Amino acid sequence: MAAELHVALVAADREVWSGQATLVVARTTSGDIGVMPGHQPLLGVLESGPVTIRTSEGGTVVAAVHGGFISFADNKLSLLAEIAELSDEIDVQRAERELERAKAEGDAAAERRADVRLRAAAAR
Amino acid sequence: MGAQLRVYKRRIRSVTATKKITKAMEMIAASRVVKAQRKVAASTPYAKELTRAVTAVGTGSNTKHPLTTQAETVTRSAVLLLTSDRGLAGAFNSNAIKAAELLTERLEREGKQVDTYIVGRRGLAHYNFRERKVSESWTGFTDQPTYADAKKVAAPLIEAIEKDTADGGVDELHIVFTEFVSMMTQTALDDRLLPLSLEDVAKEAPKGEILPLYDFEPSAEDVLDALLPRYVESRIYNALLQSAASKHAATRRAMKSATDNAGDLIENLSRLANAARQAEITQEISEIVGGSAALADASAGSDR
C-alpha cells in the first residue's frame, strides 16, 4: 500500500471532508503547493482557490476554498477554511449568476469567489 | 349558570390557552437547544485546529503582533456584550447585562475608558433606555448565528484594537457571554479576548503534545497576521453559538415553569369553580325544598 496521509478539510461551521489521501494540491499565497505523505511540517496561508485531494482509493476530491490555512504535521493535513465547498455541492448555475452579478457590480471579492466555485466545479 | 361560576370558567379558558402557548414555546426551545448544541459541536474541529496552529506559530517563532502585545498602560477597553434579540428567557439577558456592568465598573475603577459593543436587541434596549453610549451594535441573528455574523462582529473590534489609542482605538477587548454548561446551568461570564496571550492559547491545546518545527509559508509573520484575526473570529463565533444555546435553554426552562404554573392555576381555578357550582346547586336545592315546604304549608293551611 502506498503511503497515505490523513486529510481533514474543515470549514468554520462543519467538517467538509476527511479521509486518507496520497496527494493534496492547494494554493497558498506564494503559489500552488503539493503535499505528499512525509512532507515536512508546514503551516501556510491559503488563497481562494480550488483544492485537489487525490484519495487513496484513486478518486479525486475537488473543493472550493475561500481563505484559510493549511497545516501539515505527523502525516496529518488540516485544511482550515472559513468557507469550503466540495465540487459536487456547488450549484453551477447559482455560481454563474453570482459571477455575472459580481461583474456587473464590480465586486471583486464576490467575483473571485464565484470564479473559484466555477473552476472547482469544472474540475470534477 | 351563576355569575361567579361564569367568571371562573372564563379564567380557566384563558389560562388553558396561555398554557398551550407556553407548552409549544417550551418544545420549540427544546428542539432549538439541541440544534444549537449540534452547531457548537460542528464548529469544534475548526476551533481546535486553529488553536493548534496558533500555538504552533506562537511557540515556534518570536514574532510580535499588535493582537498579542500588551499595551504598557491600558487607557481604553472594549467590552463586547452578547445578549439575545428576544426575551421570554428568564434571567438570561439580565444576567449577561449584569455581568457586563460589573466588568465595566471594574475597568472604570482601574481608570480605563470603556467602549461598549452589543449584540442582541435586548442588551441594546437596556443601554439605550439608560442613554448610555454604545459604540456599535448588531441585531437579528442571535437565535442562529452564522460564521459570517461572527466575522461582521469581529471586524470593527479587530480594527479598533489595531488602531492607536490616541486615534480612538482600544487596548484590550473583553467579551461577556453566557456559557452553556449544561441544559440546566448557564453562566454569564466575562473573558479577556485581546490582547491574546499565547501562553493561554497553548494551555488550551492538548497536553503532552510536542509540536513539530513548522515550515511557514510564506513567513511566520504573515501566517500570524492571517491567523490571529481568524482565531478571534472563531472565539467570537463560539461565544455567539454558546449564547444562542444558553438562550434557548433559558427559554425552555422559563416556559416550562410557566406551563407548570398555568397547570397549578387551572387546578386551583377548577377547584374554585367546582365549589361555586356546588354552592349554586346547594342553594337551588334549598330554594326548591324551601319553596315546596312553603307550598305544602300554604296548601295545608287551605285544607283546614
Please write out the topology:
The complex is a heterodimer of chains A (124) and B (304).
Chain A: E1 5-11, E2 14-28, E3 31-35, E4 42-46, E5 49-55, E6 60-73, E7 76-86, H1 92-105, H2 108-122
Parallel strand pairs in A: 1-7
Antiparallel strand pairs in A: 1-2, 2-3, 2-5, 4-6, 5-6, 6-7
Chain B: H1 3-60, E1 76-82, H2 92-109, E2 113-119, H3 121-129, E3 136-138, H4 147-162, E4 172-180, E5 186-194, H5 198-204, E6 215-217, H6 220-303
Parallel strand pairs in B: 1-2, 1-4, 2-3
Antiparallel strand pairs in B: 4-5
Helix pairs in contact in B: 1-5, 1-6, 4-6
Which terms would index this structure?
heterodimer; A: 124 residues; alpha+beta; 5-stranded mixed β-barrel; B: alpha/beta; Pyruvate Kinase, Chain: A, domain 1; 5-stranded mixed sheet; 6 helices; 12% strand
In words, what does this structure look like?
Chain A: Produces ATP from ADP in the presence of a proton gradient across the membrane. Chain A: Pfam families: ATP-synt_DE_N (PF02823). Chain A: Keywords: ATP synthesis, Cell membrane, CF(1), Coiled coil, Hydrogen ion transport, Ion transport, Membrane, Transport. Chain A: InterPro entries: ATP_synth_F1_dsu/esu, ATP_synth_F1_dsu/esu_N, ATPsynth_dsu/esu_N. The complex is a heterodimer of chains A (124) and B (304). Chain A is α+β, with helices and mostly antiparallel strands. Chain A has two domains: 5-87, Sandwich (ATP Synthase, domain 1), CATH 2.60.15.10; 91-122. Chain A has helices spanning 92-105, 108-122, and strands at 5-11, 14-28, 31-35, 42-46, 49-55, 60-73, 76-86. In chain A, helix 1 packs antiparallel against helix 2. The longest helix of chain A has 15 residues, at 108-122. Chain A is globular and about 45 Å long. The two termini of chain A are 25 Å apart. The mean pLDDT of chain A is 83. With 304 residues, chain B is an alpha/beta fold. Chain B has one domain (27-254): ATP synthase, F1 complex, gamma subunit (Pyruvate Kinase, Chain: A, domain 1, 3-Layer(aba) Sandwich). In chain B, strands 3-2-1-4-5 form a five-stranded mixed sheet, with helices on both faces. In chain B, strand 2, helix 3 and strand 3 form a beta-alpha-beta unit. In chain B, helix 1 (3-60) runs antiparallel to helix 6 (220-303) and helix 4 packs across helix 6. Chain B starts with a helix and ends with a helix. The model of chain B has no long low-confidence stretch (mean pLDDT 87). The A-B interface holds A 8, 10-15, 28-30, 33, 40-45, 68-71, 73-74, 78, 80, 82-83 and B 39, 42-43, 45-46, 49-50, 52-53, 56-57, 146-147, 150-151, 211-218, 222-223, 226-227, 230, 233-234, 237. Strand 4 (42-46) of chain A pairs parallel with strand 6 of chain B, so a sheet runs across the interface.
